[in-house]
Amino acid sequence: MSSLLINDSNGVRTIRFNRPDKRNAIDLEMYKQLTEYLIQGEADNEIRVFLFTGTDDCFTSGNDIADFIKNSDLKNDHPAVRFLYCLLELKKPIVAAVSGAAVGIGTTMLLHCDLVYAAPSAKFQLPFVNLALVPEAAASLLLPELVGHQKSAELLLLGEAFSAEQAHNFGLVNQVIGEKELHQFSLKRAEQLAAQPADAVQATRMLMRPNKSRIQHQMHQELEIFSECLKSEEAKKRFKTFLS
Which InterPro entries does this one have (predicted)? Predict the structure, then answer.
């Protein structure tokens, strides 16, 4: 069974996390495939919008920790690093449909999406500090800009989970949609976006993100510190506890 399911229809490329036995944790091979599917879709004029989704009970539980520990040298060619920079460079819009757990990258990647819809079951968490790490995907910049310093400190420094309703109140989620309607609703929104004039959509999206170089710089800083944190004894101890 493939860990990623891809479907192209009506101008939308749907990318579904499909590793239920591991709560859709993303390993390095999945990161490689994700980047390839995004680059291919970016080059295909028939694809106008990307839609990320997961299984009914889980969006993604974040990085596959065991796989990540074995491949912890976060240089530019690291699959996870390539995926993060690819997200930033995409010209085409991104929609996400979230149900169940959205942990770590499952939450930070949403900061790079244009439309995010969540089921009432969605539970978001940024447990980087809990694992003796720092955030990634420029979350340390984008989250404070979205929700303010104090709320970001609560979410990033304490690493507590928060609900779909809270995510909606923060502005991370556009709308909370019933579990059964989530996928169809999100797909319809993505198709609606795909039907808009592509050049105008992409140009507007670019104008809405005037600080791209600043975001890229923040990503780079985070990854440098993240890489150092991975080598720390505290992180090794936390990972061991997590995996036991």
Answer: ClpP/crotonase-like_dom_sf, ECH/Chromodomain_protein, Enoyl-CoA_hydra/iso
